């Protein structure tokens, strides 16, 4: 259908049919799902009619090719105008083949592989009947107490923007109609959900518009520039107004300034939640505010279907707002080719061939190997030798709970276990296993067994972490250390006097005290996905040389939070050589710096940086700089080094961060080999939002930093003239 035909379709719809098209419900409202208690109970609870369900526009959370075929066919038999349903789900980091959590994917600094993971997730989802994924989540985060940090790629707006665009490209491809094995992507959560106060989910967000534009909005804009079809409003307030009713955010910025003409959807029940926020008196006012803000689809509350017809008839809302919303939804259905083929790629036979295929699991494995960050490796404890005599101890030694909170159709039992994989790889030596503790509890018997197993080994590998319920949505924590039971296990095993390599499975940066200082080596595995056990075993044994780099800082303690690399200097900065000074910006009981900085990660080899060259010490608007650094693999193993470029604007009209990531280059070097990392830096990259919100650069002095992370760098200077 062309746009004229779609407009004609809108004109044929009754007002009630239009408002129903804006309603999104879960599967148990529909015929054909075979869900016990379907239809009648949920309809009565929500207070909606069978007619509204029969004319609704989209369905949430159903998957499986045959199930979706059955529902779509049953729905279309009742549809007066033959408008097909949209099927949507949270495919966040894989459908059945689960990839590492997005925070881990960010640590790969590999946007091509991230794009590939989204393409595979789309392929599996589409053949299983889905049309839209609620991903990517691109919220910038600086507070690891928030459980949903697992869904983001980190604390840097530049890097987040690169991954945002990569995920959108992977999900959507070049043409949704011509590529039925792709999904429409939905970027979320607009806006600034990652800045929830206290790291508490759904909490208030309050910041200046300048801060919002400088750090939090770029990754959403990158998704729009990549062609994302849908945007999801966030749960939180922005400038005191809930996002779902925030006209400035949704109309002024998203639609008018950025030109977004795709579908805007609420988050689960977030339109009705304006009442709890205190921004709407009742469902009627919530509907009024949301439709005026431009929210097209209401997820799982009936404010629109109950009240929009009355609001329009009373002249309080213009019907053209409804028509625009309906048209945008129909346009998305047309882009997906649903009017010609309502079943799209749903195919039970192909589903069995494609979903969780060996090829897909191989990409999951590769991404997991590139996402695991080596945080410590004293005395070269890792990699394990083939003849190693190892004690593998801990609640994650044989755990299947390594997929993470948002694992969609992932099955824990399908995940490769670390212990099983390690036993397959250490063939000349031996792997002795003991659970040691549960995630949250420990017994005397478990300690005794762990000590007995440790006594048989030359080295202890501790498999520790959070269970999946400890992060994700609703998974905020005030104490981000490992549970006390696991800290006790470390303490007991330390007394055995054997080298300890700790592997951490988790969904957020942790306070690693009680682990870091007690371990000779620490490997951050995150929740690594379906092939996680195999991937981590290959990193531990040196089949793969770790190359990942942190995209969130690891704090010294929760009391430092928020702690992030691109902070301001303050008027009384701490001089590291004068830590005894009192009247400077510091803690009296902790360093200012994080335990591990943004960009940090070790390798089984070592790299040396020298010969930093800058093409000129002056930059003009039409004359960029070239920066080169020689990097040498000084170790005995081939490795990949992620060379990072940072800049500091020394004096700005608005205070500028101490360092800002502006680029990175990956160098793959053999032992003894040198390579050159080359960067181009131009005036546009030096622009920022001034106090009047204009986006421009300031002339003056800039510092350049190049190194393996945001802390350990070579330095040079130039002037923008």
What labels would you give this structure?
721 residues, alpha/beta, TIM Barrel, Rossmann fold, globular
Structure characterization notes:
Belongs to the glycosyl hydrolase 3 family. InterPro entries: Cellulose_Degrad_GH3, Fn3-like, GH, Glyco_hydro_3_AS, Glyco_hydro_3_C, Glyco_hydro_3_C_sf, Glyco_hydro_3_N, Glyco_hydro_3_N_sf. With 721 residues, this protein is an alpha/beta fold. It folds into 3 domains: 313 residues, Glycoside hydrolase, family 3, N-terminal domain (TIM Barrel, Alpha-Beta Barrel), CATH 3.20.20.300; 181 residues, Glycoside hydrolase family 3 C-terminal domain (Rossmann fold, 3-Layer(aba) Sandwich); 116 residues, Immunoglobulins (Immunoglobulin-like). 30% of the residues lie in helices and 18% in strands. The protein is built from 21 helices and 26 strands. Strands 9-6-5-4-3-2-1-10 form an 8-stranded parallel β-sheet. A 6-stranded mixed β-sheet has the order 11-16-15-14-12-13, with helices on both faces. Helix 2 packs antiparallel against helix 14, helix 6 packs across helix 17 and helix 17 packs across helix 21. The mean pLDDT is 96.
């Amino acid at each position: 259908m062309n746009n004229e035909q779609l407009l004609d379709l809108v004109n044929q719809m009754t007002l009630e049919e239009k408002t129903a098209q804006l309603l999104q419900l879960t599967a148990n409202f529909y015929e054909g799902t075979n869900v016990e208690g379907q239809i009648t109970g949920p309809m009565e609870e929500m207070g909606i009619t069978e007619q509204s369900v029969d004319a609704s526009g989209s369905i949430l959370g159903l998957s499986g090719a045959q199930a979706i075929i059955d529902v779509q066919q049953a729905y279309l038999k009742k549809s007066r105008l033959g408008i097909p349903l949209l099927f949507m789900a949270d495919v966040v980091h894989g459908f059945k083949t689960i990839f590492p959590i997005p925070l881990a994917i960010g640590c790969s600094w590999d946007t091509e592989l991230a794009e590939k993971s989204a393409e595979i997730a789309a392929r599996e989802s589409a053949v299983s009947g889905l049309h839209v994924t609620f991903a990517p989540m691109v919220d910038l985060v600086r507070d690891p107490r928030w459980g949903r940090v697992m869904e983001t790629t980190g604390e840097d707006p530049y890097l987040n923007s690169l991954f945002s665009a990569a995920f959108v490209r992977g999900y959507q491809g070049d043409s949704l109609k011509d590529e039925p094995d792709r999904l429409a992507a939905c970027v979320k959560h607009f806006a600034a959900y990652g800045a929830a106060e206290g790291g508490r989910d759904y909490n208030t967000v309050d910041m200046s518009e300048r801060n919002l534009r400088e750090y939090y909005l770029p990754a959403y804009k990158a998704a729009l520039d990549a062609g994302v079809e849908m945007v999801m409003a966030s749960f939180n307030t922005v400038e005191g107004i809930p996002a779902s009713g925030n006209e400035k955010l949704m109309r002024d910025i998203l639609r008018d300034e950025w030109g977004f003409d795709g579908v805007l959807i609420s988050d689960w029940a977030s339109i009705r939640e304006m009442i709890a926020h205190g921004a709407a008196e009742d469902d009627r006012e919530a509907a009024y505010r949301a439709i005026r803000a431009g929210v097209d689809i209401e997820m799982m509350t009936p404010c629109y279907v109950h009240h929009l017809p009355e609001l329009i008839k009373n002249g309080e809302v213009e019907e053209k707002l409804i028509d625009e919303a309906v048209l945008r939804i129909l346009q998305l259905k047309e882009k997906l080719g649903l009017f010609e083929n309502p079943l799209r790629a749903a195919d039970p036979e192909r589903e069995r061939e494609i979903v969780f295929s060996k090829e897909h699991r191989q990409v999951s494995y590769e991404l997991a190997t590139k996402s695991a960050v080596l945080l410590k490796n004293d005395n070269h404890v890792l990699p394990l030798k083939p003849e190693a005599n190892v004690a593998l101890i801990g609640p994650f030694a044989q755990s299947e709970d390594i997929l993470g909170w948002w694992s969609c159709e992932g099955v824990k039992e399908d995940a490769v276990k670390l212990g099983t994989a390690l036993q397959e790889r250490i063939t000349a030596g031996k792997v002795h296993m003991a659970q040691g503790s549960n995630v949250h509890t420990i017994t005397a018997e478990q300690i005794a067994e762990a000590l007995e197993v440790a006594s048989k080994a030359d080295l202890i590998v501790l498999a520790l972490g959070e269970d999946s319920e400890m992060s994700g949505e609703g998974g905020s924590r005030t104490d981000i250390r490992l549970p006390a039971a696991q800290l006790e296990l470390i303490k007991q095993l330390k007394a055995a006097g054997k080298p300890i390599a700790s592997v951490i499975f988790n969904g957020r940066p942790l306070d690693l005290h009680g682990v870091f200082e007690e371990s000779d080596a620490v490997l951050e595995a995150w929740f690594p996905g379906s092939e996680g056990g195999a991937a981590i075993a290959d990193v531990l044994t040196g089949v793969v040389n770790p190359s990942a780099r942190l995209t969130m800082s690891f704090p010294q303690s929760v009391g430092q939070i928020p702690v992030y690399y691109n902070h301001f200097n303050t008027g009384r900065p701490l001089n590291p050589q004068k830590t005894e000074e009192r009247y400077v910006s510091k803690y009296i009981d902790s360093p200012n710096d994080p335990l591990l900085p943004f960009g940090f990660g070790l390798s089984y080899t070592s790299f040396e940086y020298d010969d930093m060259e800058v093409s000129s010490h002056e930059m003009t608007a039409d004359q960029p700089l070239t920066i080169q650094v020689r990097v040498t693999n000084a170790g005995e193993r081939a490795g990949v080094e992620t060379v990072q470029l940072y800049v500091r604007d020394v004096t700005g009209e608005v205070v500028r961060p101490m360092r800002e990531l502006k680029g990175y280059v990956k160098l793959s070097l053999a032992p003894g080999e040198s390579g050159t990392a080359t960067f181009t830096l131009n005036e546009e990259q030096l622009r920022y939002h001034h106090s009047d919100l204009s986006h421009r650069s300031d002339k003056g002095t800039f510092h350049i930093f190049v190194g393996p992370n945001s802390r350990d760098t070579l330095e040079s200077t130039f002037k923008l003239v």
